[in-house]
Structure formats: structure tokens, C-alpha cells
Amino acid sequence: MERIQPQRIDGLAAPYFAGCREGELRLQHCPSCGHWQFYPRPFCTACGAEAPAWEAASGQGTVASFSVVRRGLSPAYEAPYTVALVDLAEGPRMMSVIIGCEPEAVTVGAPVTVCFEQWSEDLSLPVFRLDETGGVK
Amino acid sequence: MTLRAATALVGAYDTAVGVVPGVTPTELCAEAIRGAVADAGLALGDVDGLITCNAMAQPILYHAEAMAEYLQLFPKLCLSLATGGGTTVTALAHAAAAIQAGEVDTVVLAMADSLRSGLTRDQAMRMQSSTGHPDFEQPYGPTVPAYYALIAQAHMARYGTRPEHFARVAVDTRAHAARNETAQKRDPITVEDVLASRPIADPLRLLDCSLVSDGGSAVVLTRADRARDLARPPVYCLGFGEGHSHEHISQAHDLTASAARESGAAAFAMAGLGPTDLAFAQLYDCFTPTVLVELEDLGFCAKGEGGTYLASEGMGPGARLPVNTHGGMLSHCHPGNPGAMFALTEAVRQLRGDCGERQVAGAEAGLVHAQGGIMSSHATLVLGREV
User: Fold this and answer.
1) Best residue of B140, B143, B245, B253 to probe chain A, by most A CBs closer than 10 Å
2) Residues B20 and B89 grouped into a single domain
């Protein structure tokens, strides 16, 4: 059974999903006011300028909150897994999962780094790992 | 022109709730509408406005129109609204505005669903978790409890709130439900029971989560001057307020504070009352942390002190502020979007003095708060026996 796929990976969000395939987290960055935003829109939510540019993000962030899901959404999601909100270094917050550690190791404020996980044959999504350095960036 | 005391609730009716098999949401909704109109001492022909919310177990494209046809009602205002669990209070505010504007005289608000008997558990879970962003949240597999657990975890990290504080909400709510024979769950529980129940999405456990139920409910709202001549003592709508901060939890600007601050402040300002003037509050309790955050954001305690407030004051029968005197969605019933309707009908019954064993003595004014999405859309209503 396949996990849920994003409904729309073409159009406006195509650079984001292309970045995921290439191992790079890309966010919209407004050339007029410098605002970084996620999720993508055809305008800047801070200043209203049209067509914000896509740029590579650092892939660094901290855990704003998390929950270890003990009863999975469906058989495709094997519990336990750790859903998290990650505050990216550039400013935007995104939902993801924390992988590669015991669920108990995750704390609010923990530094994390993006990596990419194959979600289907031709799609990868950003997931995060705890920084082993203990948070030095 | 203020909406303060322009309208009053004059009819209220709940169907059987909990596990109600063999009855469709349409049938439950029709029963609730007929029941509320009869309670008001009115006839269906007196109703010139109908507001409903769609049912997950029996989706109908034009729901309010279909319900009007079903009952052979021919209203001047006919709307299906959907702001999730907040619909109850949001819809009532717009109905009150339409009445005050002279568009209509008497509006019925009715909602019903059969999440328990009309859907499989997996269907109900999938349908509710589809509230997540389809491209940037849902693929990661968050469940509805997990969305609220993100709020709980953030509150714990920021303010030192503990799982036993959340558990107290479930325990005190159950104590109310024990006094309400219509409630789905009535056996008393302890904080230890909550903390020992099955983990669902840390820090939330099974008893931190609301029920999955069938049920329907309706109220009748009319002009305050007309209300005085009807069958039951009018319950006046003294203050309405709304606040909307986001839809998807990953886009919330603040995980630990909600737009209940704006909706509550607006409702209290319109009513000319404050948190200490109320005999009870019916708060939205889809999960226990929701109640704790609402107690803070509506001003019943200081921000960040919800945990210590619950530990010292509690919210059960006899508490300084009893919360969810019918047993809430944690113990009375939670048929999805209609959940807060039962908080509203309970508030009407409390202010009429009709609640028997669970009556809050001398209740003159109370509050109903509803929220939809993931702490996204908030709506507050202050009600009173007197203008």
C-alpha cells in the first residue's frame, strides 16, 4: 500500500518537487523584500510582489513541535513515526517527519537537517534528521 | 448597530446520540429541526431561515436546500455553512445579523451526522485527516490527534504543562457526563486511567480524544421582542465574536495561542460581560489540550497557566467555572461538525434552569466557544437570561 502522494506536483510547485528529486530543498524568496515563503504561491505574502524566485535553502532548521504517532493513519504508515513542524533557518515553517532516531530522542528546539526520502517511483519528499553535532551550525 | 440582545434562542432539541444505527443523517437532521421548532412552540411554517452543515456520512451537494425540501420548508434564507467545528457559533452570528437586518424573523440552525454508524473507523479517520494540506502535510501521515498533539507538545515545552493537566480535562468532563443520562460515556475515570490509556499520538492518549458518535441537534433563533411571547424562557445572545488565524497547523503563526483571544474579546466586549460574570463555559473539546488553551485565550486564567489552573480549580461539577456541563465531546458525543451544537443546546437548557441534577445553581449567563480546522476558526457566544 502506497503512502499518500501530493495531489499536485506540477505547475507552481514544480521547482520544489524538482529540487526534492535533485536532493535540494528549494523555497520561494522574494527579490523585492527578501521574504522567504512556504508553501508556494504566485505572489509574495509579505509585500505582494509577483512571482517570487526559487532558491536553495540551507536545509537547516529546528523542531518547533512534534508528535510520535502511535496509531498510524493507515497500513501504509507504520507506527511509531514522528510527525514534526520544522522551523527552517530561512524563516518558514513546514511539516515533515523526523527519521533515523528513536522517537524519544526528539525534543522541541532540537536542530535538524533535511534529507530526502523516495515517496514513489519518481517522487522524493524532504524529511529531517536530528543533527548529531548537538546543534552547532 | 450592535447585535447585543437583538436575538434570542427560543427552541433547542437533541436527537439520541452515541451509537444510533439505522437512521440517516438526513433523518436525524429532520428530527432535530422538527423537535427544536416544537420546543419553541412554533410551527414549521414560522421558520423563514434555515442554516445547516453537510454530513460526512451522507454528503449532499446543496444540503440546506435538500433539508428544506425534505421538510417542505420554503425559507427566505437557506444556507449550508462549513467552518468545521466552529460552524455552530459562526452560523448563529450570521443568522442573528440577518434577523437584525430584517431579512428574516426566525432561523433554525441544524446539524447532524453519523460518524459512528455511517462510516467505518478508517473512513472516519481518513475523512477527518483530509483537513491537512494535500501537498505539504497529508503525505507525511499526520492523524487528527497528531495535529492537536503538536499544539500540546509545544505548550508543554513552552510553559511546563504536563500530561496530567490535560488528563484533568477528561476526568472532570466525565464527572459532568455521569450526571447526564443522554451522554455516551458515563463511567467515572481518574487521571491515572487517562495516563494509562492507549497512546495515540504523544502526548495524547485514547482518553484525551473525543468520541466518534452519531447524533443531531437544532436550535431556533428569533428576534428578541418576539422571543418574549413564545413557549419557553428566551435565552438572549448577548455577544458574538470570531477570529481566524490559519487553516493548516504548519501555517499557524503561534502554536500555543489561538484566535480564541480575538473571538473571546469581541464577544465579551459586545456583551458587556467578562470571564468572571459567567456561571459556566461550554468549550470545544475535540482533544483535552484544546480546552486548556481556550481557558487561557478566553481569559479564564493567564496565558501559560492553564495547567496549574486545571490542577487547582478543576472544571467539573461544583468548580468555580464548570466547563462542558453536558459531558462535552469527550464524554457526551462527537458526531463531527455538529459537536458544538450540543454545547449550545446545553447552554440553553442551563439558562432555562432545566438541567436537573447537573443544573448550575443560579446560572444567569454562560459562554459557548467553538473552533474548527486545527485551532483555526474560532467563534464565541455569550448568552444570558436577561438583556
Assistant:
1) B140
2) yes
